[in-house]
Amino acid sequence: MDLGSNITLKSDGNYVLRGNIMGSGTALTGTQANRKGFAEASCGPFGFCIVSIMLSDTENYDRNKKSLQKFMDDVDFFEPNSKKPYEDFNWVDFLKDKQLVNYTYMTGASKKNELRFCPDGNFETYIKQTGFLKEQNRKYMGTKKGTWTVIGTGPSAKLVLSFEKIGNLEVVLEMQEERVSLNGERYFISANPKCK
């Protein structure tokens, strides 16, 4: 496979079968010849296949190869259908143990929103705004706690945050092309390190 810039990726000729998964070490030529690689391919029962390629420095090769194999072991093939993406999306399951983050920086102002969701229905927010944004939604500033619920499933639902001492806040959740937004603003997703 020609990767451009005079770099070529090809099998090292040592093929291995792991169940229904075929793998091979890979070799790079050209300016990246100091890298090792590994590729695996698996085909499902519905006429399509997946191929994963890992390139690594020599020192981390074995660890990265195991990660690729774990990824391939976890692949599930589903029969194609005409169902719309996120039609049955379960927001409660998705938000458990997650953190949603939005940082905005602009001339004269900044905004930092962090929402952390625990599986027991509790949440914690950290909101900081500076500059001309400082006076907006002051009652939500700082670290706040409460309980959370979601009304609805699918690509759009309503998130109800019940803040201690403040009351409820309803937010529109949307999932589109693997992007989450709250009231139309993009949020990034990570694991929530704060749930016990």
Structure description:
The chain is mainly beta and 196 residues long. The chain has two domains: 2-73, no CATH class; 91-191, Lipocalin. It has two helices and 13 strands; from the N terminus they run βββββααββββββββ. It has helices spanning 61-73, 91-95, and strands at residues 2-4, 7-18, 21-29, 35-43, 49-57, 98-106, 109-117, 122-131, 142-151, 156-163, 167-176, 179-182, 185-191. Strands 6-7-8-9-10-11-12-13 form an eight-stranded antiparallel β-barrel. A hairpin with a 2-residue loop joins strand 12 and strand 13. The model has no long low-confidence stretch (mean pLDDT 86).
Draw up the topology in text.
Layout lengths: L1 E3 L2 E12 L2 E9 L5 E9 L5 E9 L3 H13 L17 H5 L2 E9 L2 E9 L4 E10 L10 E10 L4 E8 L3 E10 L2 E4 L2 E7 L5
Antiparallel strand pairs: 1-2, 2-3, 3-4, 4-5, 6-7, 6-13, 7-8, 8-9, 9-10, 10-11, 11-12, 12-13
Low-confidence stretches: none
Structural class, by secondary structure, is mainly beta
In CATH terms, what is the fold-level topology of the largest domain? Answer: Lipocalin
What gyration radius follows from the Cα positions, in whole Å? 23 Å
Question: How many β-strand runs?
Answer: 13
Count of discrete alpha- or pi-helical segments spanning 4 or more residues: 2
Principal-axis shape equals elongated
Reading the helices and strands in chain order gives EEEEEHHEEEEEEEE
Under CATH at level 1, the class of the largest domain stands as Mainly Beta
CATH architecture of the largest domain: Beta Barrel
Kindly state the percentage of residues in helix. under 10%
